[in-house]
Each structure stands twice: as C-alpha cells, then as structure tokens.
Design goal:
Radius of gyration: 31 Å
Distance between the termini: 68 Å
Strand content: 5-15%
Helix content: 40-55%
Structural class: alpha+beta
Length: 644
Amino acid sequence: MRFSQSFLDEIRDRVPISSVVGQRVSFDRKKSNPAKGDHWACCPFHGEKTPSFHCEDRKGRYHCFGCGVSGDHFRFLTELDGLPFPEAVERIAEMAGVPMPAPDPQAAAREEKRATLSDVMALAAAFFQQQLQGAQGAHARAYLRERGLGSAVQARFGMGYAPDSRNALKSYLADKGIDQKAMEACGVLVSGEGIAVSYDRFRDRIMFPIEDTRGRVIAFGGRAMNPEAPAKYLNSPETELFHKSRVLFNHGPARRAAQSAETLVAVEGYVDVIALSQAGIEHAVAPLGTALTEEQLDMMWRITAEPILCFDGDEAGRKAAYRAADLALPKIAAGRSLRFALLPDGKDPDDLIRSDGADALKSELTRALPLADILFMRETAGGAFNTPERRAELERGLFAQVGRIGDETVRRFYGQDMRRRLNSLFGGANRQSNAGQGGDRRFGSRRDDAVKGTGRLTVSDSLARSRLLARQGASMGVREAALVMILVTHPALVGEHFEALERLDLGHGELTDLLSALMEGLAIGRFSDDDEAARQFLVERGLGEILAQTEQLVRRARFWPAEAEAALDDAREAFRQALHLHQVSRSLNRELRDAEAELGRDPTDANYRHFLEIQRRFRDARATEALLDGFGLQSGRGKTRVES
C-alpha cells in the first residue's frame, strides 16, 4: 500500500521517536536529557556495554555512534523488528491516534488473503501439536526423548507430528471450514498437474513450525521418522507467506536473546537450534535447509556485528564455511564481519552437547575464528609452497580474494594482514629449506631491501627512520596524539571539523576512543569550548589514564599548539596542518606497500619508476613534516601570541 507523504509526516510528528525506541530499549538516565528530547541507550542493533545509541525527538531521528545505523520511526521498526513497511506505518498511526487511509481494493484483497493463510497455518500447527501428544505420536515422542528433547522444549518450539496419512491434515482443515485452495496456497497439500487428488505434504514426520518475527507460523519443516524416506528434512514450498531465503529459524527469540548475549550463533538445522536452547544458548538461528543467503546474512548483521557461524566438523561443514566466507567477503565493513566455529570432526552441535556437555560447545564458540583465518586456511590447506611458482600462485589467489572486499579501508587492512601471513609462512618454509646451505637470503627480501637500502631499491636511512614510514597502531604516534590533544584543549574545533572527524582513521584504538568520546560529549552538549569540561567528561568515560598518557607524550614533544594556553587561531592552524599531514602519510604508506607488492610480483622498469616516484613524494612530505615540527617546537611563540 502506498501512503501520501503528508500522512507519513503527520503521524511521525505526533509521536516522539523516543516513544517508539523506548519500547525496545532502556534509556540511560545519566546521559539522557528527557526535557530536551535527548535520549541515549545501548544499541539494540549490536551488542555493547556503554550507550552509544542516540535518538533526538526534535529531529525525529536515531543514530548509533558504534555501528552507524540511523533512521526514523518507520526504519526502526522495519530494521529491528522486521516489520513490513505498511505494518510499521500502521503501528505508528495507532500510537498517534490517526486513522489509516482507506487502502485500494487490490491491496485489501492481498492482505485478506495473507490473513486467511495465517489462520490456516495456525490451525495446521495446532493439529500437528495435538498429534504429537496423541496415540499416533508415541514413537515420535520416544525419538525426541532419546534426543534429549523433553516436553518442555517441545512446547517452547511448538513441535508436532504429522501422521503417516495422505489426508489426515486435509480432513482436519476441511472440518474447520478451510477450502482446498487455501490449503494448497499454504503449501500443506501437494497438488498440480498430473495429481488427481491432492494429499498431505507432510507424512510421518516430526514437525517444526517456522515463524516470522512476530511469532506467526508461516511454514513448516519436517524431519522424517522413516530412515528410508527420500528426504530426511522437508520444508514448506515458497508461498505468499514464506520465502525461505529471507527467513531464519528462531529469528525472533534469538534476536531478543542476542541483546544480552552480545552475539548471535547460526547453526545448520532445527535440532541444533533447539539443542543449543536447552544448553542455555538462546541466541541461535538456522537457515532453512539451504546454504546461507545474502538476505539471511543481512538479517544477522542487523542483530550483531560479528555473528558466529557454527558448522559441523566434517568436510561438508568446512565447505559450508568457505561458501559463507565467499558470500560475506564483498559485504564486510568496519563493524560488520563473521566468526567461524568449526567443531571437532564428525560432530554437529547437538552431538557435541550430548557427548561432552554444553560447556564443550560454549568453549568452541569462544574460540571461533575470524574471517581472515578462514580465508587463509582455505587457500593454504594441503598445499606445499616450496617453489617460487607455488608461492606466486598462493599469493595471487589470496589477493584475488582480498580484492573482492568492497570496503576500501577493510580491503587495505586485509591486504596488510595477508602480506604478514605470507611473509611468516614463506620465511618459515625457506629457513627450513635453506638449513645448511650457507644462509641464503630468504624469499621476500626485496621488501627489506627497499626499506633498509641494502639492494637495488634504495631508500635513504633518514627516510627509513621517518615517522612517515612508521607503522601506526602498535604504539601511539606523536602526530596522532597531538591531533587529539588539540581537540581536548580547544574543544570548539571538534564542532568545526565534526564531519571530517567521523571519517578520521587514527590507527590507534585508545586515541580513537578519546576522539569518539569528544564527539559524543559535544553532541550531547556536555561542553562547547570549555577544555576543563571536556577533560572531566573524558574522565567520567573512564578515559583519564589514556588522556594523561597522550598529554604526556605531546608535552615531551614540546608541541605547544596542543596546550590550553595556545591561541585558538594557532591551534586551528596547527590542527589543519597536522590533519593534512596525517592523511597524506597514511595515503603514502598505502601506496608504498602496494608499489612494493607490485614490484615484487612484476619487477619491470615501469614498476621501478613508480616506486621511485613514491620515494620522491615521501621526501616532499617529510619536508612538510619538518615545517610542522618546527612550528610545534618553538614553544616561545605560543606564549607570545597568547600574551599579545
């Protein structure tokens, strides 16, 4: 159904967004300011312990500074609860006390059909549950008891039994006044060309109802009791209600449980989900008899940043893990990836729990591997890389996979990580193969020659020692520390550069924490241009120690524009120069690594000239760095400017 913009604006304006969000989260009383319509909470879209999710009634918007989600009233309901847009509109309209506009006849017919099908599915689910508890379900109950699935868990998941009959469900629904076309539309009957009389799709099977996010039965999965049955598991066909590529078994309950568990576990089957639930792991879902789809992956990412995919410990399980990695690779980004739990050989989650207990499975989940490990594992599994050609083939394959990553920043870091792994792998292989051979130089030394100046590709010693070539992230860099300290001592600059700061990559986790807290403090009005208030806010956020370390490092460097006594104009100019140099430095580092890698793969004159050009640009950037260092080291200038 289409809605006019005026209608959407009216109901949105009548309902504060905090009223919608507040139904699903608990607002932080210390950070929130209800009088101003300003509210903070732990994000319902990803697990976190400190509130970074902000909603503002004046703007009618929400935004999470942790995972980046944002939107309005309707998007909150469609993204978090999985509601269709018309249902989200209906819910907001009800809260606003505004009647829904009259729908068009065709839309009304479709909704009426969906409602009718939902009623049929509810009746079918009730029938299967009755049969499980009746005389015909005795052998099914015995099987479930053997699997450790007692009456409590049977009731929790609405499990049932389809009798070994061609028309038991058909007759039951007919007695309830359901016509055959509705049964066929729900997929509970098999009909079509060449079938004279339609019959029950599910026969002699343990039944698992599949629900949508609102708890309505939309399909069934059936596990055959007869070991000779052609299909061990059978799902409902695609219907008006059910599109299996866009559904996860146990989605609704798992999403709610994931908020406290701070993660989500995806397993391969219904029984695995139920076994995990019995073991206290309520935040588990499963695809429906097929490989994981993009839609299902997106659904999991809406719940948590790094869902854990738990696969059976056999060859099929490993192949499934590799397929999932291929599916995810183009879509990963900062705050959106996967981890993989590969179980011991020959066991699925249910087997492991029954043989070794719930703690054994929980231990496997805590040791889940990151996506980068799975990628490297697949490319190196069973390989012998004892020749240059085989190493080149491995490198080409790895970087072809890295090239599929859509996010530029993540792709760059993956490239760095894979280069480190290759250097470690090849270095170890060559040390072994070169043992007793006079200490031949190890494979990959071209890069060492380039940086250290020991071969054809020379770089001056002074350039090699320059901070421009220093790797960021392992330790705090002076320039990056100075950038943050200028913002602490002159917090007005945070507002001036807010958009640039949102995209700034400092390469150091604790400095990034300081920067994020400064942006948050400014956004909620804890300070504007008061450096003492900014410091106090950082201390309240538990960042006092790293703040002290940062300030000490900058003072040792005698970088006076970062002191509170420096004039705002001086601090602004120093920040502008330092930010520019930081961006140039990181860009040149990326280009240098890429040029080195390309030269290592293809040592042509053109690639050599390209490498020399980057050297020249490094020298120019180093000259700029010297100017900035000089500006910062003249501590007398800052005081003179302040006093004048």
